[in-house]
């Protein structure tokens, strides 16, 4: 609990104003050493699986499984946390930060932010970059 108290105390106006807790999809997908953490429910995942093979490694762990599976989340990579509305990604962000994860960020919480990066021109560029 002490770590959570310290974490909450660090979340000042400067922290939120600087946006250090967020990452844009374009920036996340451009990173060489990053993970897209999908924390949506099984039902959401079964309805729409997010696969970004040409961009980034996708790790799907529903929010209710995070306490048992957080060790699967790399500490040495930037982790962009995604859910469809923003609430769960914010909760997981706080949870991971309380466990000492430093390189976690909240990804935009809407499908448009993802699909806008998959237009043919952007996808072509991503494939070209991955082949270098």
TrEMBL record:
Keyword tRNA-binding applies? no
Listed SMART domains: RHOD
Q: Does the keyword Transferase apply?
A: yes
| Annotated GO MF terms | transferase activity
Could you tell me the superkingdom of the organism this chain comes from? Bacteria
| Pfam families named among the record's database cross-references | Rhodanese (PF00581)
Q: Which InterPro entries match?
A: GlpE_sulfurtransferase, Rhodanese-like_dom, Rhodanese-like_dom_sf
Xref: SUPFAM superfamilies: Rhodanese/Cell cycle control phosphatase
User: Which residue range or ranges hold the Rhodanese domain?
Assistant: 30-123
Keywords (alphabetical) are: Transferase
Query: What is the protein's name according to its record?
Result: Sulfurtransferase
- The species is Ornatilinea apprima
């Amino acid at each position: 609990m002490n770590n959570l108290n310290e974490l909450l105390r660090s979340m000042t106006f400067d922290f939120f104003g600087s946006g250090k807790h967020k990452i844009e999809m374009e920036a996340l997908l451009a990173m060489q050493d990053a993970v897209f953490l999908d924390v949506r429910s099984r039902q959401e995942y079964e309805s729409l699986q997010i696969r970004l093979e040409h961009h980034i490694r996708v790790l799907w762990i529903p929010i209710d499984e995070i306490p048992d599976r957080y060790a699967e989340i790399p500490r040495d990579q930037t982790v962009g946390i995604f859910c469809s509305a923003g609430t769960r990604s914010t909760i997981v962000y706080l949870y991971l930060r309380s466990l000492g994860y430093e390189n976690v960020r909240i990804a935009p919480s809407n499908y448009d932010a993802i699909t806008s990066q998959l237009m043919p021109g952007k996808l072509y560029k991503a494939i070209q970059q991955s082949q270098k």
